[in-house]
């Protein structure tokens, strides 16, 4: 099933997050964005050359929009992370699944399609409820602006996902889509680092340095799997399965960092898993096309 590529993407992104957690002890967030993008550019260029896939694209503006909205989402998320509790920032970013569901159902109504997607959309909402149970976000009154930025990060991510779907439907190779996004990420990180400065290598731990290449490779593979999932799978099902990343991250925290998982978090984990299973069972009743696929 093509949508299960999203589960693999979630696993790869969660593994990448472990590397970011380790590397952040020596590098700033903007540096990690730059190194992640740089390694991804080199890795994807090498893969595409080996596969004989040209870098030139007949739809440069579609890639430009996907890259711009993706970089906006990433930058907004990092801003939210720096000004909000981590759980709140992650929850707002993971609202992307809810936004995708809203766009798909709203688009179906706009285009006069059948809307037999209620049960599948309910699984997306149930999965997000599981995310809230696991992360238990909080927001103070003086954090409202940062909360709005965090909300925009999820909205931007959903728009990027739908653009990925559109690129896949016109036949753009997944590798090319990932490559151009990596270029945008690297350039954004570079601009930020030029303003803030690089960390001297003499103060970088070997563990942090050792993670730089794996972070970029994992990001590339995760983006590739995510792109394939949204390009070829049922959109609402893929939107639901992205919540698996929270489950993988929680298990990594338990296994590698000895973090304690509260009972309500275990319940939330079960809700996410059950919603994903339900979404998979209901996928045949979902409309696989999104408004972007009409073109």
Model description:
By secondary structure, this protein is mainly alpha-helical. It is 76% helix and 0% strand. It has one domain (2-290). It has twelve helices and no strands. The two termini are 24 Å apart.
Keywords:
disordered C terminus; single chain; mainly alpha; 295 residues; 0% strand
Condensed summary:
By secondary structure, the protein is mainly α. It has helices at 5-23, 29-51, 60-83, 86-93, 96-110, 118-135, 144-169, 174-196, 206-232, 235-241, 244-256, 263-282. The chain contains twelve helices and no strands.
The largest sheet is:
none
Distance between the termini: 24 Å
Strand content: under 5%
Compute the gyration radius: what is it?
A: 19 Å
Gross morphology is: globular
- Count up the helices: 12
Which bin fits the share of residues in helices? over 70%
Low-pLDDT windows of residues: 286-295
Q: How many strand segments?
A: 0
What's the pLDDT, averaged over the residues?
85
The secondary-structure element order is: HHHHHHHHHHHH
Number of domains: 1
Going by helix content, strand content and strand pairing, the class is: mainly alpha
């Amino acid at each position: 099933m093509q949508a299960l590529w999203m589960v693999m993407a979630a696993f790869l992104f969660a593994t990448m997050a472990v590397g970011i957690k380790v590397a952040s002890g020596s590098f700033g967030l903007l540096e990690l964005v730059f190194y992640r993008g740089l390694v991804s550019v080199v890795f994807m260029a090498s893969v595409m050359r080996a596969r004989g896939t040209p870098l030139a694209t007949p739809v440069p503006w579609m890639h430009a929009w996907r890259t711009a909205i993706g970089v906006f989402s990433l930058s907004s998320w990092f801003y939210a992370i720096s000004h909000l509790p981590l759980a709140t920032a992650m929850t707002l970013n993971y609202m992307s699944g809810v936004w995708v569901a809203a766009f798909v159902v709203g688009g179906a109504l706009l285009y006069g399609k059948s809307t037999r997607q209620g049960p599948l959309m309910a699984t997306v909402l149930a999965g997000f409820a599981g995310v809230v149970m696991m992360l238990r976000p909080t927001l103070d009154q003086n954090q409202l602006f940062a909360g709005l930025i965090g909300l925009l990060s999820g909205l931007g991510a959903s728009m990027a996902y739908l653009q990925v779907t559109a690129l896949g439907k016109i036949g753009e190779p997944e590798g090319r889509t990932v490559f151009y996004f990596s270029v945008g990420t690297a350039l954004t990180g570079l601009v930020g680092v030029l303003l803030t400065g690089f960390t001297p290598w003499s103060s970088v731990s070997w563990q942090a340095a050792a993670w730089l290449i794996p972070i970029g490779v994992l990001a590339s593979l995760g983006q590739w799997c995510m792109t394939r999932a949204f390009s070829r799978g049922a959109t609402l099902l893929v939107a639901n399965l992205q919540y698996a990343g929270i489950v993988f991250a929680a298990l990594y925290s338990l296994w590698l960092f000895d973090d304690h998982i509260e009972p309500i978090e275990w319940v939330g984990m079960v809700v996410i898993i059950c919603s994903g299973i339900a979404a998979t069972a209901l996928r045949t009743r979902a409309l696989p096309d999104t408004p972007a696929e009409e073109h």
